[in-house]
């Protein structure tokens, strides 16, 4: 199943947004936010409702929601101020404006292949003679077959066990702007983004009044400016 609007296609299972069959890069949270808006197209979604749906397992500030809405608008408009897809309802929330069509793809519900049922008609013929059962001539082969069956059963049981879940406590630390830069004022977003492997943090800083992207390894103490990131506002991995 996928959702279509304008030149876009949203594929929930593949976690992918396409524009004319070309992938549009989105952060995981931005994609989840887009999916919630598209599924409720034409309806107002309160800010608290959106934050509980997208950040159900974390406590975040309202600025995170505003930053992701800005990122979605930028990606959907192609950066040229095109058609507005997301409406802001002041002091309430957001509404997705475009008409959305739900399309079920052919490979969503494929019928399970089943073996045809064949009816056999027995003719009236004499039954063949059956020899009396004798002793097993290959006991080693029988033991091997039984051992193989037991091994398959044990492997199947082990594979069906639920993975062990390890609870990791949250880590708190202070991030400073690199030398020669400063963090944005409170009314401007810093737009922090953690890498997929959880080892690095990217965020927005100001250098000489210009926005650049800083990167810091979470297991280190030094923070540096990413070369060629002048004008960057919303970093993502």
What does this molecule look like?
This protein has 237 residues and is of the alpha+beta class. Among the domains are: 2-103, Arc Repressor Mutant, subunit A, CATH 1.10.10.10; 177-237, no CATH class. Helices cover 24% and strands 21% of the residues. The chain has four helices and twelve strands, in the order ββββαβααβββαββββ. The chain has helices at 28-39, 47-54, 62-77, 139-160, and strands at 2-5, 8-11, 16-19, 22-23, 44-46, 86-89, 93-96, 101-103, 193-194, 200-207, 210-217, 223-225. Strands 4-3-2-1-8 form a five-stranded antiparallel sheet, covered by helices on one side. A four-stranded antiparallel sheet has the order 9-10-11-12, with no helix packed on it. Mean pLDDT is 79; it is low at 111-125.
Key attributes of the depicted protein:
five-stranded antiparallel beta sheet; 237 residues; 4 helices; Arc Repressor Mutant, subunit A; 21% strand; alpha+beta; 12 strands
Termini separation (Å)? 26 Å
Shape: extended
Mean pLDDT rating: 79
CATH architecture name of the domain at 2-103: Orthogonal Bundle
CATH class descriptor of the domain at 2-103: Mainly Alpha
Q: What is the fold's blueprint, element by element?
A:
Layout: E1 2-5, E2 8-11, E3 16-19, E4 22-23, H1 28-39, E5 44-46, H2 47-54, H3 62-77, E6 86-89, E7 93-96, E8 101-103, H4 139-160, E9 193-194, E10 200-207, E11 210-217, E12 223-225
Antiparallel strand pairs: 1-2, 1-8, 2-3, 3-4, 5-7, 6-7, 9-10, 10-11, 11-12
């Amino acid at each position: 199943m996928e959702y279509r609007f304008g030149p876009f296609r949203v594929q929930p299972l593949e976690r992918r947004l396409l524009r004319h069959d070309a992938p549009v890069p989105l952060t995981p949270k931005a994609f989840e936010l887009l999916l919630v808006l598209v599924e409720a197209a034409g309806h107002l979604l309160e800010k608290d409702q959106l934050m509980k749906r997208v950040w159900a397992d974390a406590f975040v500030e309202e600025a995170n929601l505003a930053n992701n809405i800005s990122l979605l608008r930028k990606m959907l408009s192609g950066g040229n101020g095109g058609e507005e897809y997301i409406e802001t309802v002041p002091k309430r929330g957001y509404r997705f404006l475009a008409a959305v069509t739900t399309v079920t793809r052919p490979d969503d519900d494929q019928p399970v292949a089943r073996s045809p049922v064949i009816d056999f008609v027995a003719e009236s013929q004499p039954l063949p003679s059956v020899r009396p059962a004798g002793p097993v001539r290959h006991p080693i082969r029988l033991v091997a077959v039984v051992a193989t069956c037991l091994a398959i059963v044990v492997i199947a049981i082990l594979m069906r066990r639920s993975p062990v879940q390890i609870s990791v406590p949250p880590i708190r630390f202070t991030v400073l702007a690199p030398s020669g830069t400063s963090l944005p004022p409170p009314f401007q977003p810093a737009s922090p983004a953690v890498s997929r492997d959880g080892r690095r943090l990217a965020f927005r800083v100001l250098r000489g009044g210009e926005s650049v992207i800083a990167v810091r390894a979470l297991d280190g103490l030094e923070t540096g400016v990413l070369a060629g990131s002048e004008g960057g506002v919303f970093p993502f991995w």
